[in-house]
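Service request form, structural biology core

Requester: graduate student, group of Dr. S.
Request type: structure prediction, single chain
Budget code: on file
Notes: please return the result as structure tokens.

Sequence provided:
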Amino acid sequence: MNFSVVVFDVGRTLMEYKDMPNSWLDYYPKAFEHVNQKLGLNLDAEQLNKSLEIFRSFSPSINYREHDCTPEEIFSEVTAGWNKTFKLSDVIDAFFESMNLQAYIYPDTVPVLKKLKDEGFKIAALTDVATGMPDSMHKSYFSELLEYFDMYVSSSSCGFKKPSIKGLQDISEGLNASAADMIMVGDEPKDIEVAKRFGCKSVHIDRNNSGEFYGEDYKISDLYGLLKILEI
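Core staff response, request fulfilled:
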């Protein structure tokens, strides 16, 4: 098949956060403690636990939802019972600062993106932003990759998380490509599911060689395998 647009998931496809699991739920209590201490809020255990409960309720792994909420919406609810003086942006910054996220761009990422550009492919990113994280912060962890994307779509920018097809619809319209022109590369079941829903081909990148099958059309262990699929 002839493809003209390659759509990439970002996390664990093009890069990863060092020493971070797929689910960040275990890091939330520490994050709220850091916010409390850094901003000098003197929140008690009951307030912190209530905030944690509210924040966790926004996680799609706990309460499944495809509609994405903005960081401002989430943290406005989280902090509603604090009765303290603070800037919401400071709360958000301190929350994620506590995680000390360290980005690692896979060594095959840039060479493959360059090759695709050289061969005339359009490249798009379709990524779900971590719960409560501003899109600008999300992009800052892989800023060196942005120049390769003809289109960047996130759950924040389109308002929906995968496997909603809204992001792929936006890419299709923005790059004037049909589903048949597009191929989606990702590491999770939702990446394969969104491709199936939309009608484009899917590639499961299984960097750890887990052997998991999500119903994908193709499987690769690194991005060089994609070049073989595309016959370039």
